[in-house]
């Protein structure tokens, strides 16, 4: 029996595709180079066209003709308030018709509790809400709903893990809001891979997004993430959705913060605060009181500052502790602050204030579980360390705001006027700021009624600490460095 001769053109080229992430390679490998999974490559036919060849199929026609930019007008988006003020604040005022929001966060931080409360409040104001869970049964969600008081009859609960059944629920119920918890637990039969893989999560998210857009259905998707940003995490979905918000918090602290990372319908620098307790999540409209310790008498090693979380000014208390050590390498530790920057500020404080810190351990921390990475807190860190080293309490009713450079100079930070206004609103009467801020009219207006101490260099202020064992008795008339604008 004779066989026809094989030609290069008649041979079909094969590739190997990962069943988890969809990545393709030209040769078989034991481990996928994209998702690092073992034994997931299978042989598939190549879909790449031959080099130099051109498609002879019919030319595709555009779905919409290109239009001049001058003819395009921005459309006003009608927003639906969820009833949770802090959640609406991060979204830019509420949900937009057809908007898809991805709520990302580590497991156990409280995403399901937050969205169950949002669903309850939304049902009270706007109508039916469908909450679909792929992680818990409907009965488990019912127990949590009873605990937090989310018992509105328009809030419907379903437990499904198949995308087709989820869409069938949406078709039958026709809700005003859809909540999916979480998107990694939903799978579709059109993709031959496990639920939670990159290919599955992409397909599920894309299908839900297209459905939401075509039906004008606002949708909230929960996305589990880890500190290592593992495969199929929310980072892989950011470009598919309209808005990405992250829900953050330390399990040892009751504070939770909701941040806007991406938002096509609003600002991307808003922050909302919640407090987690036995009854669920409670909105914190004024979180500044969470980040300070109220005490009757001032103590050494403590300084207050005002940081910026997005566009929101927040009061924070920085504490320092300095102790003698016999170790050849003194320890530098920071809690709630960046360790490298804190170590740098310790060295700057030692040089600017002529303080002996090379034979002492230095610890710096924030109060209330606050995480501060704002350069505007540099001055407060330096003053807290110097106050602890000299065992001299700082001024009461005073906040320090400014960035400290390696040379010891003070630089103006963004949002200084907002920070000063927040300090005045909270009852503080004295602010220490960089001297260059006196040229800004907004800062001058915000500082009306306050005692302002402009500083050029850190050494000027630390020299005051050396000269005054009881700073509270001196108040604002501290030498020439306290001259107002």
Structure description:
The protein folds into 3 domains: 14-45; 79-285, Rossmann fold (3-Layer(aba) Sandwich); 289-482, Ribosomal Protein S5, domain 2 (2-Layer Sandwich), CATH 3.30.230.10. The protein has 485 residues and is of the alpha/beta class. The chain is globular and about 75 Å long. Helices cover 25% and strands 24% of the residues. It has helices spanning 85-91, 111-126, 138-148, 163-173, 198-215, 339-352, 378-390, 416-425, 441-446, 458-467, 471-474; strands spanning 14-18, 24-25, 41-45, 79-80, 95-96, 100-105, 129-133, 155-159, 177-181, 219-224, 243-248, 255-263, 271-277, 280-283, 302-309, 312-324, 332-335, 360-366, 398-400, 403-404, 410-411, 430-434, 451-455. The relative contact order is 0.08. The protein is built from 11 helices and 23 strands. Strands 8-7-9-10-6-11-12-13-14 form a 9-stranded mixed β-sheet, sandwiched between helices. Strands 15-16-18-17 form a 4-stranded mixed β-sheet. A 3-stranded antiparallel β-sheet has the order 2-1-3, with no helix packed on it. β9 (177-181), α5 and β10 (219-224) form a beta-alpha-beta unit.
């Amino acid at each position: 029996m004779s066989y026809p001769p094989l030609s290069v053109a008649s041979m079909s080229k094969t590739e190997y595709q990962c069943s988890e992430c969809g990545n393709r390679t030209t040769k078989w490998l034991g481990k996928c180079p994209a998702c690092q999974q073992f034994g997931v490559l299978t042989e598939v036919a190549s879909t790449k066209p031959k080099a130099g060849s051109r498609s002879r199929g019919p030319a595709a026609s555009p779905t919409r003709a290109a239009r001049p930019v001058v003819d395009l007008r921005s459309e006003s988006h009608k927003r639906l308030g969820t009833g949770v003020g802090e959640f609406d604040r991060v979204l830019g005022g509420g949900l937009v018709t057809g908007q898809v929001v991805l709520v990302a966060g580590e497991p156990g931080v409280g995403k399901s509790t937050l969205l169950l409360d949002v669903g309850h409040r939304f049902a009270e104001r706007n109508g039916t809400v469908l909450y679909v869970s792929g992680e818990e049964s409907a009965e488990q969600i019912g127990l949590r709903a009873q605990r937090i008081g989310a018992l509105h009859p328009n809030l419907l609960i379903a437990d499904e893990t198949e995308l087709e059944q989820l869409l069938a629920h949406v078709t039958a119920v026709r809700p005003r809001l859809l909540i999916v918890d979480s998107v990694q637990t939903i799978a579709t039969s059109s993709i031959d891979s496990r639920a939670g893989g990159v290919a599955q999560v992409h397909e599920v998210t894309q299908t839900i997004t297209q459905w939401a857009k075509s039906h004008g259905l606002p949708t909230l998707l929960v996305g589990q993430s880890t500190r290592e940003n593992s495969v199929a995490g929310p980072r892989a979905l950011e470009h598919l959705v309209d808005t990405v918000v992250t829900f953050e918090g330390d399990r040892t602290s009751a504070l939770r913060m909701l941040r806007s990372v991406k938002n096509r319908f609003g600002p991307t620098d808003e922050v909302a605060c919640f407090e987690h307790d036995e009854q669920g999540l409670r909105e914190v409209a004024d979180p500044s009181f969470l980040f300070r310790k109220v005490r009757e008498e001032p103590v050494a090693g403590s300084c207050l500052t005002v940081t910026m979380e997005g566009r929101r000014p927040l009061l924070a208390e920085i504490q320092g502790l300095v102790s003698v050590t016999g170790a050849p390498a003194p320890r530098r530790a920071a809690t709630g602050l960046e360790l490298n920057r804190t170590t740098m500020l310790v060295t700057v404080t030692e040089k600017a204030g002529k303080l002996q810190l090379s034979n002492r351990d230095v610890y710096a921390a924030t109060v209330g579980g606050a995480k501060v990475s704002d350069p505007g807190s540099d001055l407060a860190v330096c003053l807290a360390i110097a106050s602890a080293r000299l065992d001299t309490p700082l001024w009461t009713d005073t906040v320090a705001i400014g960035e400290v450079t390696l040379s010891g100079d003070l630089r103006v930070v963004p949002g200084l006027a907002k920070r000063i206004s927040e300090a005045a609103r909270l009852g503080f009467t004295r602010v220490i700021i960089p001297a260059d801020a006196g040229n800004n009219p907004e800062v001058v207006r915000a500082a009306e009624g306050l005692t302002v101490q402009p500083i050029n260099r850190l050494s000027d202020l630390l020299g005051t600490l050396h000269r005054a064992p009881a700073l509270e008795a001196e108040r604002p008339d501290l030498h020439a460095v306290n001259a107002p604008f």
